[in-house]
Amino acid sequence: MREILRAEALAGVPHGFLTGLGHEGEPDPARIVAGAELVRVKQVHSPRVVFVEAPFAGDELPEADALVTDRPGLVLGVVTADCAPVLLADRAAGVVGAAHAGWRGAFGGVLEATVAAMIEAGATRETIVAAIGPTIAQASYEVDQAFHDRLVEHDADNAALFAPGAPAHHQFDLPAYVRRRLESAGIGRIDDLARDTYTEEQLFHSFRRATHRGEPTYGRQFSLIACPT
């Protein structure tokens, strides 16, 4: 059975960052809330957010990279394998969100869009808390010069997120970039579990690690959240 990691920022909110260990099918939402139903989307590295009122009908999932709800009985889920899973909640308002934030989604504004959708559902910016789950760490994430230049040209402050790497390459701090984008959204608290999907191979799937080793790249881990009751 997959291990469940919790975040202090989300204490009192049903949630969990699952490891990649155990059965590889969809997780049992009852491990988060008894009798709840799991809701997912087709993730496409976009800034799109969907507000969930009920489980989606049919087999076709909407294309999006974040979900928000204020409805009890639903467990929101995202899958990752190096990108950052971000779970968010406003306990008082009873609104939660889950976002898949790779660099493309974060760059495109998926986190700010998630916060905006939560506010539209009744949350307050300053009382939203967020937790960044297992993601690839800076020491494990080499990028090329074009990647570096794109982010720095967009915002010169992003230069601080890169460390020297191999010639014409850099080490990118994705968790810090995600935190920066959450901070720009003005939310109240941000916690980072600081777990590296690439190096902690006994616990997490890593798309980049599998690619480097020529292994199958289909492995993912789930991050789940539901409204507090």
UniProtKB/TrEMBL annotation:
Keywords: Hydrolase, Metal-binding, Transferase, Zinc. Gene3D superfamilies: CNF1/YfiH-like putative cysteine hydrolases. It catalyses: adenosine + H2O + H(+) = inosine + NH4(+); inosine + phosphate = alpha-D-ribose 1-phosphate + hypoxanthine; S-methyl-5'-thioadenosine + phosphate = 5-(methylsulfanyl)-alpha-D-ribose 1-phosphate + adenine; adenosine + phosphate = alpha-D-ribose 1-phosphate + adenine. The keyword Kinase does not apply. It holds the Pfam family Cu-oxidase_4. One of its GO terms (molecular function) is S-methyl-5-thioadenosine phosphorylase activity. CDD domains: YfiH. Belongs to the purine nucleoside phosphorylase YfiH/LACC1 family. This is Purine nucleoside phosphorylase. It comes from Aurantiacibacter xanthus.
